[in-house]
């Protein structure tokens, strides 16, 4: 998995690209505090090589919790997250993204 951050010079926004290798998956979405944990708000596109990729523009100077939702059933974290935070509601850790 990979997270790439590109800060825009023209405005206080960070362009974040998520890449997830998952050849066996049918769909992957990024859910998090930046999209109200909406499983349909940030779906990643499946590439020919079997990985999934997508980009989100996020306001900079903030932290966001997130996870990947695979095939609408399994939540996974990105090992390249900036950190991890326990979430009592989910009874699991979420990845943390600092932009």
TrEMBL record:
Matching InterPro entries: AMPK1_CBM, Ig-like_fold, Ig_E-set
Pfam families the UniProt entry points to: AMPK1_CBM (PF16561)
Molecular function, one GO term: kinase activity
Keyword field: Kinase, Transferase
Lineage of the organism: Bacteria, Pseudomonadati, Bacteroidota, Flavobacteriia, Flavobacteriales
Source organism: Winogradskyella arenosi
Residue ranges occupied by any AMP-activated protein kinase glycogen-binding domain in the UniProt entry: 23-80
Protein name stated in the entry: AMP-activated protein kinase-like protein
SUPFAM superfamilies linked: E set domains
Domain of life: Bacteria
